[in-house]
Amino acid sequence: MSESAPISSSSAPHAPCGACLTHVHNLCVRLGGQLVLDDLTFDLRCGEITALVGPNGAGKTTLLRALLGEIPYSGHCHFHGGPGHPLRRLVVGYVPQRLAFDRAAPLTVADLFALGAGHRPVFFGLSATVRASAGAALAEVDAAHLMERRLGDLSGGELQRVLLALSLLPEPDLLLLDEPQQGLDAAGLERFYEVVARLRGRFDMAVVLVSHDLAAVARVADRVFLLNRSLLAVGPPAEVLRKLENGYSSKVGERKIEETK
Amino acid sequence: MAYLFEFWHQVIGGLPWDWAQHGFVRLALLAVLLAAPLFAVIGTQVVGLRLVFFSDTLGHAALAGLGIGVVAGLTQPWWAMLIWAVVIALAMTWVQRRSRAAADTVLGVFMAFSVALGIMLLSRHGQTKQLLNYLIGDVLSITENGLTGLALTLLITMGLALRWFNALALTGLNASLAGSRGIRVVWMQVGFAVLVAVAVTLVIPWIGLLLINAFLVLPAAAARLLARDMRQYLAWSVALAVAAGVGGLVSSYYWDTPTGATIVLWAVTFYAAALLLHPRRGGPASSVESVEP
């Protein structure tokens, strides 16, 4: 049984090679007989931040779940490691919108890393190697000082950065960030995007940022996918923004009404 | 095995107290010492995964299993209880995954069905005394033979619970996050449901099905109030479960009360004390989104 990916303290992160590619071809998802995602074809390149935007119900979360392998889809999803690299399974890092815990939960940041590190039961504590790599990952997101804090005592922004650090172990090929602005104030959000933008240059991975707010992600993203069941527009943020103003918005609106019926 | 029991009887029998002079109390003590840590570990997961009502339903479902076992003429209706509880656990997990109805409604229906079926079958066969035995439980009825089998099963269950502890806890925090780290979320949910069913059914004959869930959940719930991290959480949970188990057993001997109920009253007392010590952390262990303070 393939179980929790091991966290190793093996090496410093690899800067993006520019050659690895996650290739998605003719991806379709049907849920309950309805076509939720219609024939998506796109590439995700390492060192690039792609913002996935669209109205509520456009299928953003469905696409994330398909990339995570949680729901069945038709079409292909391949990962090419670039020339000289053996073909292997895509390692996906995932930052969820939220965790289900109450503020009093006896769970520290170190515990969270222990839970993600494999089978050594969390109450035996972190092994030295996992502690070292967890510390390094936390340092990448300016959160090294949070190691012994309880999750319930963290601010929304701090928790989001901790989750980001967890998703870096093991080093992913593809990092999926699910609507990270939830529960963050403006300053926390700004800081979070700053960190994501910095990580882009430090790790050999592609980043997908899911958001319903194009304006919020326009500054940090290299490319924007405008999604509403199918891909309506792909391009640099400024270009997609312009297209949106020149008519796509009405189309998005129509689809939204149709889907909520 | 017999040697081990003899050793146990000698050690405990050497204690200067009145209760330690009775063989059946010494066996009951051994049973409690085996069951309490297992329940403490599983209980922390039940609370963390918000499955308190789920495990309560499993306890009550045992009634229908007992009824079926009696109707089938089994000398050991316990086996029917076990199989029924596992079937119900799987069915509830399946329905919860497929149905859009609120989880607690679905569980309520399963509980109503099992309890009604159990009462009907048992009373038709004139087994109301058996019914009462299982409702209240009798920790003093344990035999050495029964205890050997139970000890082995408990140890296996404990091993599984520890082996999958991290994966389960992560699944409770966020299923997609767990899935992205290679954990088979569905198997976790199914496996844990079966594990709870087995553990609960094992201990029902001693504690009684009315209160089995309290013994499962209360030590963990109290520990949650006292602990700061996962290590303290587990340590408190085990300590409180063992304390309630041993305290309940010994005091029920002197007070001449049912042991299961006495154990649970101890556990409730511990919970109340924990709440008083940390009133600020009280309140229901609900799933609260993490937001800016």
Q: Average pLDDT across residues of chain A?
A: 82
Outline type of chain A? globular
Q: Would you list the SSEs of chain A in sequence order as H and E?
A: EEEHEEHHHEHEHEEH
Low-confidence stretches of chain A: 1-6, 256-261
**How many β-strands of chain A, per DSSP?**
9
Instruction: Return Rg of chain B in Å.
Output: 19 Å
Helix percentage of chain B:
over 70%
Integer average pLDDT of chain B? 87
- CATH level-4 homologous superfamily of chain B: ABC transporter involved in vitamin B12 uptake, BtuC
Structure annotation, total helices of chain A: 7
Instruction: Please indicate the percent range of residues of chain B in DSSP E strands (runs of 2 or more).
Output: under 5%
Question: Which CATH-level-2 architecture of chain B?
Answer: Orthogonal Bundle
Supply database-style keywords.
heterodimer; A: 261 residues; alpha/beta; six-stranded mixed β-sheet; disordered N terminus; B: 293 residues; ABC transporter involved in vitamin B12 uptake, BtuC; 0% strand; disordered C terminus
Can you tell me about this structure?
The complex is a heterodimer of chains A (261) and B (293). Chain A has 261 residues and is of the alpha/beta class. Chain A has a domain at 101-168. Helices cover 33% and strands 23% of the residues of chain A. Chain A contains 7 helices and 9 strands. In chain A, strands 5-6-7-3-8-9 form a 6-stranded mixed β-sheet, sandwiched between helices. Chain A has a 3-stranded antiparallel β-sheet with strand order 2-1-4, covered by helices on one side. In chain A, helix 3 crosses helix 4 (156-167) and helix 4 (156-167) packs parallel to helix 5 (186-202). Chain A is globular and about 55 Å long. Chain B has a single domain, classed as Orthogonal Bundle (ABC transporter involved in vitamin B12 uptake, BtuC). Chain B has helices at 2-13, 23-48, 52-71, 78-98, 103-124, 128-136, 144-163, 165-173, 175-180, 185-207, 212-226, 230-255, 259-277. Chain B has 293 residues and is mostly helical. At the A-B interface, strand 5, helix 2 and helix 4 of A face helix 8, helix 9, helix 11 and helix 12 of B.
